[in-house]
Structure formats: C-alpha cells, structure tokens
Protein 1
Amino acid sequence: MDRRFLIACIAVAFALPTACVVAENSKPTPVLKGVTGAGRFERTKNGAVEAASDSAGPVGVQPRRLSAGVVTQCRPLQGGQKARAVLYSYLLDAQFSCGIGTGSTVELQPDPTTARGKCCDAAGTNCTLNISDVVGVTGSTSQDKEVVTLKLDDVPTNLKGQLHFKCVTKGTESEYCIVTVDMPAPFEENQCSFDRNVKLTPIEGPNTETAFDCRGPVTSVPTDAQVFTGDDCTGNPSKLKDLIPGATLEKESNIFRLRVAALPTTAQNLCFKCIYRDPRTNAPAPTATCKVTVAVAGTSKTTTASTTSAAEGITVKSFAAVAFAFFSSAALHS
C-alpha cells in the first residue's frame, strides 16, 4: 500500500472526532428574551372610580369595575336621561340610586319588592323581562334607603347582556332616568377570581419575572413562606427560597411579582393560593380558591445535554481508533 495514502487516511481519521465535537458544541445557545404571553403583566395606573361613570379601559372596550361600593346616580329628568353601571365581577352586584327617599315622588320600575327578578327593555317601555333571560342566570334587586342593589346568583353566561331599570317620577312618564347595567369584561389570563385558576407562562431561564393579579375581596393572599407545588396546591407549603434559592415574591397593591434570579437544580411547579369569598348564591363553601401555577425549569436538563454531547464525542473517537487500527494492519500486511 502507498505509504502517503496511508498517512493521509490516518490524518483524516484523527480529524473526524475533532470536527464532530466542534460541530456539536457550536450549536447556538438560546437567549431568553423575557416572559411573554399569558403570564405577562403590564403595569397600569389605577385611577379613581367616579360614581357616575365606573367603567374602566379604552373607549370601545367592554368595561370592568375596579372597586366595590360604587353607586351610580340616576335622577329623573324631563325628557329622560341615561346612566350606566357595571356589574362588579368579584361580588356579582351593581348599585345605583334613583334618589328615592322618605316622601320621595320617585319610584323604581320594576318594583324591587314585588318583581325582584325582573328588568326593563332598553327603552323602558316593558319592565316585565326576566333577568335570567337576558344574562343567563337568575338575579334580583333590593332597596336599602336610596341605594338599589342588583345581585346575580351566579356568574353571568351572556356577557353581552345588558340589564335596564327605570327611575320615574310618580304620575308622569315623561320624567325618568334609565340605568343600564353592563356585564363585566372577561378577565385577563393572569387575573384571579373565585371561579377561575391562573396558569402563568413557564420560566425557562434566569433573571426572569412574571406576575399575577389577586385583586378583589380576598380573605388570604400568597406569601413567600406559603408556596405549594403541583397543579392542585396540595400538601404542606414550603418557603420560596427553599424551592428556588434567590427567588422573590413581592406584592404591589394587588399585583404579585415572582422574580427568579437563577434556575433551581431541579425543575419546580410552583402553586400560589388567592382565597376569595364566594358570592354565588348556591356556592358549595363560603370561600373559593384561585390556584396560580407556574413551571420553573431546572438546570439538570443542561447537564443531561452535556452528557449526551460527550457520549457522542466518545463514539466518534472510538470510530477513529478503529480506523487507525484498520489502516495500521493494512500497512503491516502490504
């Protein structure tokens, strides 16, 4: 066998493992751009809620009431006027006032004492409609002094439905005010409530932040000393620092921000609890829990990948050794 050919073959055999290992290790490392999607919470400014206009959000967007205890004023005027209220998601109620007091000449239609489950049409000409036919669940009105409270028995199924009530001066149909109660806008994906859970975008890299919203009449909120694991938030709670060293949970008003500085060795599925008073009439218990879960990747997957790459390099080197032995044998027998 030509000695120059043999030397060339041996050189190629030794070059192969180096080239393969370099190619394997030169794969680009993914760069974390930050948390996006369902778990991303953008900071907003919470303004005061006016009694006459308690809607929130841009024009053209379905409103959401930001706080409880908002009373919309609807006083009868000649030729009629209109007012709007928004159902409060966390209590399933809305409140308004017709200015009805002792000796008042104003009355509410439908009558909250004899037609509690009724409402009017938009024009106020028919006040015998069933609340359940409009929003999909039963409800009723009650009056305490000047304040009228609309209360639904469950979460409305028709969020586009509007309930109308008429404040009218007795003895005349030309002096009135129609109050329209809008159903609330759907929740954002990271917002808790008594009838829903939240699943945040997984955390897959260090220096990552995510957030969730526990606004409303909560009876218990998450802390960094009461962190559960698993989707069901069962078992004994742990401290956040014990599950993910260096991680923090900070409360800003009703927003909770989870910051992970470094990934834990073992992947974790964290679970936080926001406990609400359940306003549903036939609720199975006085309180209901919103479970907030977020998966946090572990560094062990990186170790596994490195081990796999090393094994592939060893395999290539073994192939080179076999090739060297083959060509050496051929040289001896030539």
Protein 2
Amino acid sequence: MSKYFGLIIFVLYAFAPAILVAQVQVNGTIDVAFTAGGEDSKFISNGINQEFKNPHISIPQVNLLMFAPINESFFVEARLQSDTWGTGQLSMPRFTLANLTWAKPDNNYSLSFGRFISPVGKYSSRSLNIDRTFVDLPLNYSYFINISDERGFWPNAGDQGNYTSGDVGLTNIYFGGYSTGALWDWSIKDDKLRLQTAITMAAPASDQNYTNLNNAAVQSHLTYNPNIFWELGLSASYGGFMQSSPRNAALQTDNPFEQYKQALVGLDVRYSFAFVEIIAEGIFSRWNVPCYTGGQFNFYGSELAEYRTTNAGVNVDFKYEPPFLPGSYAALRVEHLSFLTAETDSASLSSWDDDVSRVSAVVGYKLARNVTAKVSISDQSPLDQSLYAVRFYLSAFF
C-alpha cells in the first residue's frame, strides 16, 4: 500500500513547477476505516469484501482533487483516486474525473466535456465520503443486480458467486457517480430552477469510462426549489450500456449489442427545517437485455432471446443535528429495492432477483473543520445479521 502513496507523492512533486505556474488548486481527501461484516458479506451486496469481513483497519479511499482555471471562461478539474473497490485492497491511482468546462461569468449556463458528475440521481454528487451523511450509498447505487454488461440478464449470478472482479454486474446508477460525454448545466432561474442534460457514452448504470461499442445515452435532471425548505428533483435517462468481450463477440454480427438499453426515471425530494433534514428518492429502471444461463446465451431460433426486466428502489433518509452538541448528527435510512417482472415474447417471470431491504443508522461528529468521524451500523435482507456491516470512519479534507 505504501508504494501507492509514494506514487501519489511523486506525481505531486513531478508536477509541482507546472502547478505553481498554472495556479492549479490541489486538495485531497483520505478515509481511514475500521470495519466488520456478517458471515455472508460480499462487496456486491453489503459493500464488505468476503476476504476482509473480520474486524480490520483499512484506508478505503484516497483522492487528489485538482482545479485549474485557464482564463475567465475555461477551467479544468480532475480527480486522482485510489480505493478498495471490489478487492478490499487499495488500487493503483487513476483519474476518475477529468473535464474541460466553459463557463462565462455573464452566462447562466455552462458546458463541460470529458468525464463529469452524472446529472442523474440525488446521490451521484456524493461520491466523496466526507460529503455524505451515511457511509454507504443507497441500494440504487450500491447493490449489484443480476444484470451484466457482458452477458445481460444473468439469473442468480450474485447469489451463486459467479461474479468476479472482472464482471460484478451493474447497479441501477453507477456508484462512482461519473459519466463521460458532454454536459449542459443551465440555471433557468437563480436558486429556483436548474436543468442539467448530458449526452454520454453509456447509460448511468455503466461503470466504464466509455464502452467499446457504439453506445450513447441521454441523461437529465431537473431541480426545483420552491422555497428554502424544499428541493424537488426529477431524473431521466435512456441509452446503451453493454460491453463487447470474448464471451459475446461472436454473437454480435447478427445480434448487435448496441440494441440493448436501460431506461430510468427518478424522483427525489429534500426537506430541511431547523435541525431536521429528510431526503427521499425513488428510482425505476427498465432493461432490455439478452439472457445468459447455464454458461451460454439463450436463443430463439437464430436470434438472441431478449428479456425486458424492471426494478424499483426507494430510500428515505432522516437526519437530526442536536442543537446542544454543535457539529454532531444522528441519521437513519430505510430503503427497499424491489425486482418486478422479467418478460420475453413467450414467457414472463414474476421476479428476477431477490428483493432487498436495508436499515442503516449512523452518528457523526465534526472533530475539526475538515475532519469528520462516523459510526455506522446496517443490516439487510434476510435481516438475520449474516449481511450486517459495522463501520467507523475518519474522513479528512486537506
């Protein structure tokens, strides 16, 4: 792990002269965690890798955040990230965010090109732990369903342990919160109405910087603030997400994988008054995908069998900041992810994955202006402590 920190320090020193000349602003975050999980813990379910389910101390994430103004109209922003995604061990640093933005001071809109925060979903902008009330993201962003971007509908893949680090399935919205393409951010009415619309290289479920097929998607989010207490949001997206791989390449001559799409709509509500904040979000997602069972793709004659699957998830977050202890808070999240129908032209399934319920509680305290401590406890279906998770996080912004 120390070699990764060494590489980050080397990058900073190597580019230090350029940083001074270009007046690049460099900040960062670090998370230090003590975690433990239930007997059946999996990264794809409760976020704790099976290999590291026993109590241990780790560094889940380190980030360097860079902002470089070019002139009054253009700036560049980037994020260099190392995390324990999937494996439980720190990865090599990589750029997960990098874009060029045009934003003239007199305009009420901006244009971004590259990899940016996805406009879809309330929590896409909360990929940094220090920005979150809870340690975990909601199920819509963190629970990996039985759909693979290489195989399509893959029944029981997660339950049977078929997923590997190279193919772990998808979440309804990519938990990293980023998309690649072009983003238009329009403040229609100051502090009242905002529209973000993006043309991206893949649907919001994709965790790829861009797919290796001719995929495209439209993502949009409309935010309305009727007053200082309420914020209402509407999300919508439609586009492709499949990846070409040795498993499916031979099939694509007669069955192009660009035809498979994800359609998503979402509604989010935030209410804040005095020491109380309530956030609720519902996401409905519809997929049309091939089906992969028994180690092979399903066919109808010479054509791949197409499944149309749907699922819906909702979470409600309640947060209280006691006035007698400034800098502290307690929060409770209740959420459910329901898997609805899976249909083909000749058959239908009443459910295509197991419904999931999760309850999470967290208490947090700001130890310093940029240092936060959180203790989180969660359990989820079947609510027998086999998938519980306990996390103590120290997060710092520097």
